[in-house]
Amino acid sequence: MFLAHPSGGPPIAVTSEAESDEAAWLDLLNPTEEERALAAAITGLRMPTRQDVEEIESSSRVYMEEQTFYLSTPLVRRIDDVSFTSPVGFVLSHDRLVSIRYTDFPVFETVSRRMSGHTSPHGSADTLVMLLEGFIDRIADLLELSARDLDQLSKGVFHSAEPSGQNVDRLLRDMLQKVGKEADLISSARDSLLGLQRIILYISENTERACPERLAGRLRLLGKDIGSLTDYAIQMSNKVQFLLDATLGFINIEQSNGIKILTVVSIVGIPPTLIASIYGMNFKNIPELNWSFGYEYALVLMGATIVLPLIWFWRKGWLGWR
Q: What are phi and psi of 92, to 5 degrees?
């Protein structure tokens, strides 16, 4: 999809060069080769491919060619509790901004509506700064949502009623899945913040060429926001690690309980088995075999060897009740 976003009007689907004359912002969503070629013909600029915007080297994400800035970053997206990153690229010249994306981010629609409601022209740099502000606001919202989820998960781990039986396995499995989802979101958010920070620093270092001086204050504020959000994301990563360790600790406890049960069963079962084996030997000179109470004696002895270990395990608390 190839859209042009003129100030004071709705976005226009671009199929020819004449349809984008008044728009400072051109938006490519999952562009075809024909749409990339059309954007290049309209702007006279090279349009990066998806492989270009997916490069991870810093020198490949922010650079300048012939007074034109080429910027790219991964951006976090969350759909139905599934978090992932998708690359977004920008081509910024003094009169045009071309955005290249492969996922439908809501921020683009928000900025487009803002531009449609204002008749005053928005330059290419103004549009880029509005998009950057929207990205950072969206990441902040995702981190706040994740923080609430982590609080609920923490209460579930430490303050919920103790489950029993098969509920324990299901609860621990759900905890691990939820902790993993939050870890994915926070990791993706940190990658996005790092990429946006690179873009803002690069633009700030080239303010005279990239954007008007009046936008420098907004860029500095965005840099501060990224710093605070990065610190917040680090704090949340630590909490995720703590919850993960706690969940794994509960799993170890459950495994230990299982081993305790096996230990009790084996120890309780060995003495009576030994007694039964002794009196089952085929030796003639076993006094108890000729005793009239020998059978009852053996049963009582076997019962005692079962009960006494159980009492000992009970006093140790291994049986789970006192």
A: -115, 120
Instruction: Give the model confidence (pLDDT) of 202-224 as tens digits.
Output: 998 887 776 777 788 899 999 99
pLDDT in tens, 220-266: 999 999 999 999 999 999 999 998 888 888 778 777 777 777 777 77
Alpha helices in 105-215 (DSSP H): 106-116, 124-158, 166-205, 207-210
Domains (ranges, CATH) in the chain?
2-254 (3.30.460.20), 256-316 (1.20.58)
Please name which of 147, 150, 166 lies closest in space to residue 158, comparing C-alpha atoms. Answer: 150
Instruction: Copy the structure tokens of residue 39.
Output: 């954007």
Nearest to residue 88, comparing CAs of 68, 73, 106, 78?
73
Residues in the chain: 322
Q: How far apart are CA 287 and CA 44, in angstroms?
A: 110
Question: What is the rounded distance in angstroms from the CA atom of residue 322 to the CA atom of residue 179?
Answer: 34
Q: Which of 311, 308, 289, 310 is nearest to 298 (CA)?
A: 289
pLDDT one-digit tens code per residue, 261-301? 777 777 777 787 777 777 676 656 667 667 777 778 778 88
